Amino acid sequence: MRKYVSIVEKNRHLMYEEMMDAAKLLFNEQTEEQEIAEFLVALSKKGETAYEVAALASVMKSFAVDLNVPQGNYMDNCGTGGDGSNSFNISTTSAFVLAGAGVSVAKHGNRKISSATGSHDVLEALGIRSDFSTEETAELLHQEGIAFLYAPNVHPKMKRIGGVRQQIGKPTIFNLVGPLTNPITLKTQFTGINRPDFIMEYASVLRMLGRDRAIVVSGAGGMDEASLAGQNAFVLLDKGDLIPFSLTADDVGLKYADPSSIRGGDAQENAAIIRAVLGGERGPRFDTVALNAGIGLFANGQAETIQEGVKQAIDSILSGRALQKLEAVVTFSELVNQKVVAR
Q1: How far apart are CA 112 and CA 117, in angstroms?
Q2: Measuring CA to CA, which of 26, 52, 139, 191 is 20 to 30 A from 283?
Q3: 280 and 308 in contact (C-beta within 8 Å)?
Q4: Is residue 204 annotated as involved in ligand binding?
Q5: 87 is in an annotated binding site
Q6: 48 marked as binding residue
Q7: Binding of anthranilate 2: at which residues (predicted)?
């Protein structure tokens, strides 16, 4: 690992094969944690490349737990995190909206690392377990068309690295890699990064990893979600083509809103926000979820335009179907709890 730290500290990008070797060393129990931290910090200072991200994602996924899920048109909508916006859990809320609109969602996520409240912190506050077995996860996905994959459960080799990331306390390449390492094979994806300069490269990583169709967003103000607060930059991956485009809330029939209007809090506060949005409470939080879920529906191919996707997302909420998906996952979790207690 010392060799690769030295190369990166000299500001040289690693070739794909070099990064594959370095990635295997990251997951090797014999590699010193200090060297792992130095490598991650050096990569961050240098600036990660598409090849480095793709190589690490490939190695990390190869070590993931096999969930034995039958092939299907599964989608993920998690972003990289680390944007410092202190927003509520937009992509987690949007996942229920997507599922309510008929999309099969396998959402990858974690507890807070570089954000105030991670997806699994808020899911736990909503009454949803993080420690479903592989069989339970597959059953939930089949039964309700939505499942949340807790990264430490599906990536056991990440345990040591998770500790190192918490010590570093800033976003690293693992923030970029997180949305790319879902153990379930995805056909489509909607993901966000807080680096507008990297969206084309990130979309090319998704192409390298075999996605049929995907959208990458870098939101106004550097959010890793689409924002109501200005111009959002996107790249659409469609049949191998990478197509850049941009849009504002106004372009899809929604109103501008200041970023402060979508701030969240701790897990309990964010859980209450999610329930309010899925309950149909209108305002900037509702519109932000409708925008992001609408883009997800377009990425998935269920909507022919983002504007149509936004309409479908609003219908998923106002019809009660999105909230029904949340309640169904909570009920499933309660049944698992009862089985655990009965053992």
Answers
A1: 5
A2: 191
A3: no
A4: no
A5: yes
A6: no
A7: 165
- Ligand-binding site membership of 89 (annotated): yes
**Residue 118 in marked binding region:** no
pLDDT one-digit tens code per residue, 9-58: 999 999 999 999 999 999 999 999 999 999 999 999 999 999 999 999 99
213 is in an annotated binding site: no
For the 2-62 domain, the top CATH level (class) is: mainly alpha
pTM: 0.93
Check the annotation: does 83 bind a ligand.
Answer: yes
Q: Is 92 annotated as a binding residue?
A: yes
279 is an annotated ligand-binding site residue? no
Q: Which token pair is 235?
A: 């790249």
How many angstroms separate the Cα of 169 from the Cα of each of 22, 25, 40? Answer: 21, 21, 11
Tell me: is residue 339 an annotated ligand-binding position.
no
Residues in CB range of 211: below 8 A, 6 or more apart: 186, 187, 188, 189, 237
Quick: pLDDT tens for 59-118: 999 999 999 898 889 999 999 877 778 899 999 999 999 999 999 999 987 765 545 567
Question: Of 328, 296, 323, which is closest to residue 312 (Cα–Cα)?
Answer: 296
Q: What's the pLDDT at 289?
A: 98
Distances (CA, A) of 332 to 106, 136, 144, 226: 16, 9, 9, 31
- Annotated binding-site residue? 165: yes
Instruction: Judge whether 108 is annotated as a binding position.
Output: yes
Tell me the C-alpha distance between 58 and 304, whole Å. 31
Residue 85 known to bind ligand? no
| Coarse DSSP helix, strand, coil percentages of the chain, rounded to the nearest 5 percent | 55, 15, 30
111 marked as part of a ligand binding site: yes
131 is in an annotated binding site: no
Q: Among 131, 163, 133, which residue's Cα sits nearest to residue 150?
A: 131
Report the C-alpha gap between 150 and 175 in whole angstroms. Answer: 15
Per the annotation, does 114 bind a ligand? yes
* Measured distance CA(312)–CA(94) in Å, rounded: 12
Fold (CATH) for 74-327: Pyrimidine Nucleoside Phosphorylase; Chain A, domain 2 (3.40.1030)
